[in-house]
Amino acid sequence: MTNSNVLPQIDHSHEVIIRLDMNTSKGTISLVLFPEHAPKAVENFVTHSENGYYNGLTFHRVIKGFMIQGGDPMGTGMGGESIYGHPFEDEFSLQLFHFRGALSMANSGPNTNGSQFFIVHSDELNPQFKSQLEQAGFPQGAIDEYIEQGGTPWLDHRHTVFGQVIDGFDVLDAIANVQVGPNDKPVEPVTIISITVHKG
């Protein structure tokens, strides 16, 4: 399976890709994961998913035009742990970027990954960023994708991207558009019902 329709100019067709369905109270988001580039983050997320760790948890922080965040059993942004029993290191790749729909690890600084994650909702990028990305040495394919689809390039090499939405962008939009209260917490909880992992 290839996600070339999701990441134009960046060829992932030769890689092992894991697909999963995140079933939420707003509908299903389908994603692919990239174990070749972020093996520890993918193993962490897949194992937690298969063990039901995320079942019933909420998206505790939702910022329209930026991202939706979940994976914290406490629902506060302060909880959760990795399958390794301790925070694990960042895994950065010049093949994975914070495009719209990117699945990435939330953290509290370098090498502090646990169970929390976010999905990028941003669907536009200020054109002024183009020259900054060029000066920073971003691949042309990544720059083109950011300009066309949107995203949050300032998070690259600060958070570990390990997956990408391939279907269910309407559900991502629906979650991002819910009413929120203090600390960007949805007034009515948005819940992860289950995550189904498809290997092979």
From TrEMBL:
Cited function: PPIases accelerate the folding of proteins. It catalyzes the cis-trans isomerization of proline imidic peptide bonds in oligopeptides.
Pfam families: Pro_isomerase
Reactions catalysed, as given in the entry: [protein]-peptidylproline (omega=180) = [protein]-peptidylproline (omega=0)
Homology family: Belongs to the cyclophilin-type PPIase family.
Residues in PPIase cyclophilin-type domain copies: 27-197
GO biological process, alphabetically ordered: protein folding
Domain of life: Bacteria
GO molecular function: peptidyl-prolyl cis-trans isomerase activity
Alphabetical UniProt keywords: Isomerase, Rotamase
PANTHER family the UniProt entry points to: PEPTIDYL-PROLYL CIS-TRANS ISOMERASE-RELATED, PEPTIDYLPROLYL ISOMERASE DOMAIN AND WD REPEAT-CONTAINING PROTEIN 1
EC number: 5.2.1.8
Coiled-coil regions, chain positions: none
Name of the protein this chain belongs to: Peptidyl-prolyl cis-trans isomerase
